[in-house]
Design goal:
Layout: H1 2-19, H2 35-47, H3 53-61
Length: 68
């Protein structure tokens, strides 16, 4: 699970560096990786209180928008 999360974070970092924001459309994929779905799952976990503070901070540094 940690490896999957790190992969998603790295893909989001690539996306934000290229696009200038972290508002990823749900259907968006980075290559074969379903980045939009991954971001939606992070929002769900955050809203449910199931995300560690460290992960939330790492996403926020990339410009994560918790409420789209």
């Amino acid at each position: 699970e940690r490896q999957d999360w790190a992969r998603g974070w790295a893909k989001l970092k690539e996306y934000t560096e290229r696009e200038g924001h972290a508002r990823v459309p749900y259907e968006h994929k980075e290559g074969a990786f379903p980045l939009g779905q991954w971001v939606a799952e992070q929002r769900r976990a955050y809203g449910a209180g199931q995300m560690t503070g460290q992960r939330a901070q790492r996403l926020e540094r990339l410009g994560m928008v918790w409420s789209p």
